[in-house]
Amino acid sequence: MKVLSLTEPFATLILEKKKYIETRSWKTDYRGTLYIHSSMTKPSKKDLKDKELMSLVDNKNMNFGNIICKCNLVDCIYMTKEYVEKMKKKNYQEYICGEYKEGRYAWIVEDIEIIKPIKAKGQLGIWNYFNEFEIMNLMENIEYGWMDKQGNKYNTVDESYSNNYILQSPKEILKNKVGVCWDQVELERYYFKGNDWNIKTYFIVYYDNDKCPTHTFLTFEKGNKYYWFEHSWERFRGIHEYTTLKYLLLDVRNKFIKYELNDVYEKNNLCIYNYKKPKYHINVLDFYKHCESGINILLEDK
Question: pTM of the predicted model, to two decimals?
Fold first, then answer.
């Protein structure tokens, strides 16, 4: 869904059908269904002191950090001096609910509908919100493989991988339609960006002084449950639910031991790191270093 984040009280004013024009400094060519998100930003002191403006929301509770309604974006009008003056004289309520100045744009919305609030962080501009099932469907377009420094595509990890692999950006993955788990997690991170689900990414590695096998994966927390979101590891592709994060990590670790290490391993050589978003276009060694700079998760079986 296409979403626009607004500070309060302006998101609530649209929800309550007291505002049908959103004023912006930039033009949009988008037309169609648009969801309105109430950002986490508290109302400014200036707006709170504006009695005319605040009287329109009747001190109602505001759904900070939620997508609260949908509407139809039907037009985007460039504001001339005449347009601003006309709004002030003939549509004063709209006028006080926006920033009307020559050179800005008036986004016209219609067909406002209340929806069940959806928790979301929000982003700048018009952004996309996807639930976990939509994201999994989007990931189906990505094959397992990698890109080298020269832009060549490979469908299998061979001996040249260690020296020639580079980490792709989400846009590059979408263009090339290929990526190993390291890449695919970054695309998943991109898709989950607007969600307020405590997204975390992990790097599991076994130090065997040879190939040092690894796997990266993404988790999220939703409704007091924890989920392992897995696309690149085809054997376990899907969205797996757990009661605790510990059980989730233990399950992934145990599957890695069984299917990637064939149950042959030294416990002290197996590590799981919680890592943050890396820089794109780094090589294999730099990716290892980045993940190892994260939090080393110590797991006990009980």
Answer: 0.85
